[in-house]
Every structure is written in C-alpha cells, then in structure tokens.
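Saturday, quiet lab. Running sequence design on the structure tokens for the scaffold JK sent over.
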C-alpha cells in the first residue's frame, strides 16, 4: 500500500469536524472551498467525550472527523527488504511493532504505509476512541464516512506543494508535532507537550540537529501551522527567525507559505 492511499480516501465528505486539543471546529466544504467554519472551546473530543456541541452544528449529511496528532502513535520501521504481498508485510510490521510496543496491540486500530522498498510508517489509534465517535454520530443519525489525522493531511498538502518544506511544525494547544521530510516523504516524526514557546523553539533546534546528523539532510525550509491561529503561532515564528541568526553556519530557517487557505489539515481543500 502506498502512502497516497491514506491521503486519498475513495470519497471525501463535504462536512468536517476537527477534533483538537480542548477545542474543535466544524467546516462546511463546497467545491473544494471552505464556506463555513465554527469554533468550539473546551471539548475533549480526542478522549471521545464532549461531542454534543460539535454535532449540534452539523448538517445531516456525510461527515468526516479529523483528529490532531494527540491520539495517534507514529512509528517508522526499516527492514532489509519489504515483501510485496500484503499479508506477509502485515506480519512483518506487526512483529516489529510487538517488539517495541508495551500495550496490547489488539486495543488499537493499526494502519501502516510503505514509504519505499525498506521503510514503513505505522500509525496506531485506540479502537475505543473510534467506537465512541462512531456511536455519537449514529445516535444523531449523521453518517460518518471518514476519520483522519491532521498530521497526515498536512503531509498530503506538502506532497502536492510546488515548493515542499523540509519540516513541518504543527501546534495544537499544549502539543507540538514535528515532521521531517526527504524527497517529499516523511523520515522522522516527534511529538512533545507542555513546553513554553521558548522551549518549543529549543526543541525544534535540537530535533533539526538530530535529523541532520542522523539522516544527512539539512532541514531549513519549514511550514508552521498552529490550530489556534496566527496569533498563537507568532511567538514561535519570531523565535525561529531569531534562532536563524544563531545557526547561520547550518543555514537559516525559512518559512514557506502553507497554501491558499488557512486549513491545510482539512481534506478536500484546494
């Protein structure tokens, strides 16, 4: 299975709920454009609770849910060679996952995606979360046709971008996710929580240095997307530009535009 199969579901809904870190938004899409969006503060949607306000704002039509990075567990696995048969590949990936994962894998929905001939991206999310969300939609008789990840949606946008970033900074309240790319494919992903803006920039710098040393690439161009808006992202942006002057020997950080709209985490936006 190629990575594009995750990015391109068979049928995209025209109504999306974004379930963030203690906040949520609903989006109405028409012709690949956002025609309406409404924000809600406080719900713990990523825990499977607090769906009443979001569901009340929805139309009775096919709907998708996009979660932020919070409930997902990402792993990269590298093998000497990957088998092409899906069953054999599944067995190999499950075996590797069981060696490092301390919990019962059966409690998680596990999907994985071939990145090249040797590497796989593995993604886990609790089945109980998916079941609670499905039950909430069923109770309101709103068809739920898609559940996705904001991180993966932003990566999808990066794959299509004319000028692709070397790394992506995705912030969502107390959480921050960093994804590094080489030739438009993810090579490293890191999540961390509950650090200040200054510490976030310090952690970005440490991770950039790690990726540069580990993978032999020079991450310089980046996307910065904060789910709480540009005002929330401004301190990180300013600190990254300041950090550029301190790392001039490795190349300055350069922020690239995300695209024509402010919702790269929402599938179907052009």
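Result came back. Writing it out in full:
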């Amino acid at each position: 299975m190629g990575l594009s199969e995750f990015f391109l579901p068979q049928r995209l809904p025209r109504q999306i709920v974004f379930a963030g870190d203690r906040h949520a938004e609903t989006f109405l899409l028409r012709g690949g454009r956002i025609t309406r969006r409404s924000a809600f503060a406080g719900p713990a949607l990523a825990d499977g609770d607090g769906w009443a306000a979001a569901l009340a704002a929805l139309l009775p039509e096919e709907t998708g849910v996009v979660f932020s990075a919070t409930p997902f567990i990402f792993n990269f696995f590298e093998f000497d060679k990957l088998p092409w048969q899906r069953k054999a590949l599944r067995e190999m990936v499950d075996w590797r996952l069981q060696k490092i994962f301390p919990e019962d894998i059966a409690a998680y929905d596990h999907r994985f995606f071939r990145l090249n001939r040797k590497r796989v991206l593995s993604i886990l999310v609790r089945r109980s979360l998916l079941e609670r969300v499905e039950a909430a939609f069923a109770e309101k008789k709103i068809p739920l046709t898609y559940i996705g990840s904001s991180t993966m949606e932003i990566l999808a946008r990066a794959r299509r971008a004319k000028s692709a970033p070397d790394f992506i900074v995705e912030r969502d309240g107390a959480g921050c996710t960093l994804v590094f790319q080489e030739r438009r494919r993810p090579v490293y992903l890191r999540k961390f929580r509950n650090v200040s803006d200054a510490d976030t920039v310090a952690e970005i710098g440490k991770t950039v240095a790690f990726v540069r040393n580990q993978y032999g690439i020079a991450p310089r161009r980046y996307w910065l997307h904060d789910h709480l808006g540009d005002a929330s992202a401004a301190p990180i942006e300013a600190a990254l530009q300041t950090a550029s002057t301190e790392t001039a020997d490795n190349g300055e950080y350069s922020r690239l535009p995300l695209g024509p709209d402010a919702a790269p985490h929402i599938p179907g936006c052009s």
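Notes for JK: Confidence is low (pLDDT under 50) at residues 1-8. The first strand starts at residue 15 and ends at 19. Ask whether to fix the surface positions before the next round.
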